tRNA (5-methylaminomethyl-2-thiouridine)(34)-methyltransferase MnmD (Paenimyroides aestuarii), 218 residues
Amino acid sequence: MKRELILTNDGSHSLLVTNMGETFHSKHGAVQESLHVYIKNGLEHVCKNSINVLEFGFGTGLNALLTMQYASENNVIIHYETIEAYPLVAQEYQALNYNSFVETTLSLQYLHELACNKLEKVTTHFSILKHFCKIEDFASTKFFDIIYFDVFGYDYQSELWSEEILRKAYNLLQPNGIFVTYACKGLINRRLKEIGFKVKKLQGPPGKREMVFAVKKI
């Protein structure tokens, strides 16, 4: 998977997968998209002092970095697990400029260099467990309060938006758990509803009209 560094409109970096023509984040702004979708319209809706987060697609590590910042600023304990089949190499993650946008005591590079398949207590508020595997192969006995569904778009990797994968996400959530994603495609929304989610369309980040916020029905 060949990837090139690009600059998005808010001044933050993203990566372009050249053989797909797909970017890891919105070209309108990587940091502002992640903040809008996964923090403001996701994590902030979990009203607990201790939160279990599962991310489908570690990618650049931006969502994890922003979540670590949120945990510290809001004095909540966050246990973060993330799945990634094709982790970045040092040359790629060292070039990303997210440390200039996020106020944390530890850098993005630190998160990337942590061992995989090992629970790491990063700060008093934030621990992380990275799984380097395909989403199809991921399994857990744990249940999560929120899932960040941040895989490549349907037009590029439709298999990751299949009923089987979306049902896996549903089964990994606690009752009333939250599923949040940047995408808002009619076919995906119908699948989510058929599986058992209560689906709500929210205003999307700059450059995108809508996003999806879904809750696991009980």
User: Anything to note?
Assistant: DSSP finds six helices and eleven strands in the chain. The chain has one domain: 29-216.
